[in-house]
Design a protein that fits this description.
By secondary structure, this protein is mainly α. The protein has 14 helices and six strands. A hairpin with a 7-residue loop joins strand 5 and strand 6. The longest helix has 31 residues.
Length: 350
């Protein structure tokens, strides 16, 4: 009798231990997706907020067991903000160990073409904890100007299109620091020497490259376009770059720049102001920066879109030559526009 009772008690203890082990080390997630993210804010993160998020998103099936284990592991006294991805079927113990150790899931910030610092701030706010207002306040702060020796208008000159990896709760300074580090690595001694031979600083190269990027998508002619702007700078001729006028107006839908557009009062209007604008008009591509650095020596000071409408340009060294090519383009454009009108009229008639 005693022996049987002992066996029953032992079995119950084993079963109980198994149940406890299952609660803490067995699958404990409550969602059907492959994984879910838990975001723990830098400000206001506490036991209640985290528990609410775990329950609301179905990240754990047993919130009371989670709380019990969290207390034993002293997690509530050492909350670490960040983004934590939890895979389906993860145990409570594994989840808590990840949170307690601050094993965040990296976040990729993919930068393609950005035109303004505000664009950068908005992109950051969509991917990281820092909101756009906080990012802009940082870019416009005295500490940013002092530390970086640049203004917010020049910030995008140091932002190269690429993929950057961050922790979700990175602050604005850390965010920009990684961008600045990548830019510094790009500017090798060889590239600096090329810029010096052109009598340009890296910032000036970036500004020219940003204009070239807005002028053409054809990599094989970007160096020639760059030579035009470099020649204009050297002779004191205004750049007269249409993309800078669009930037000044903050209207990037403008297809053709007319006389009325040229009246805008802005330091970015290179029709009314000599020299380079205060900063880049977009994030310059690495290949375009190299195209500027490798710009050939030419006598070109004019260029116009090709009448073939293939995205290329025709270059000229004199105004007379340029006007001939410009008339060819205008004539071809007039014919093309009439064809488009005729097509639209036919479509409407049907």
């Amino acid at each position: 009798m005693v022996r049987n009772l002992f066996i029953i008690v032992a079995i119950l203890l084993l079963v109980g231990a198994g149940v406890v082990a299952w609660f803490f080390w067995g699958p404990a997630t409550g969602f059907s997706e492959n994984k879910k993210a838990l975001y723990i804010a830098t400000d206001g993160a506490n036991k209640q907020a985290i528990t609410d998020s775990l329950v609301r998103n179905g990240i754990v099936k047993y919130p009371k067991a989670f709380d019990f284990l969290a207390q034993r592991l002293k997690y509530w006294n050492n909350i670490k903000p960040g983004k934590y991805e939890i895979e389906k079927g993860t145990s409570l113990f594994t989840i808590l160990r990840r949170l307690r150790n601050g094993q965040q899931t990296p976040v990729n910030l993919v930068i393609n073409k950005l035109r303004t610092p505000q664009d950068l701030a908005k992109l950051v706010s969509r991917r990281l904890e820092t909101d756009s207002a906080e990012m802009m306040a940082y870019l416009q702060s005295d500490s940013f100007r002092t530390k970086r020796s640049i203004t917010s208008d020049q910030a995008l000159a140091y932002v190269l299109p690429d993929t950057y990896t961050y922790f979700w709760n990175s602050d604005p300074d850390k965010i920009f620091q990684k961008l600045a580090d990548a830019n510094r690595q790009f500017w090798t001694e060889e590239r600096k020497q090329k810029a010096a031979r052109l009598s340009l600083t890296p910032l000036q190269v970036a500004i020219i490259a940003s204009i070239v990027d807005e002028e053409s998508n054809k990599l094989d002619e970007k160096d020639t376009i760059a030579s035009v702007y470099i020649n204009r700078l050297r002779t004191g001729m205004p750049l007269q770059a249409d993309p800078t006028v669009r930037f000044a107006l903050q209207d990037f839908t403008i297809k053709r720049v007319y006389e009325k557009h040229l009246q805008v009062g802005s330091p970015y209007n290179t029709y009314r102001n000599a020299g380079l604008p205060p900063g880049p008009i977009c994030t310059p591509q690495k290949a375009t920066l190299d195209a500027v650095l490798d710009a050939p020596q030419t006598e070109y000071v004019y260029f116009v879109a090709s009448p073939e409408f293939d995205g290329t340009h025709d270059f000229s060294a004199t105004y007379a030559e340029h006007m001939k090519k410009a008339k060819l383009y205008q004539a071809a454009l007039t014919v093309w526009m009439q064809k488009q009108k005729d097509k639209q009229a036919q479509a409407n008639a049907q």
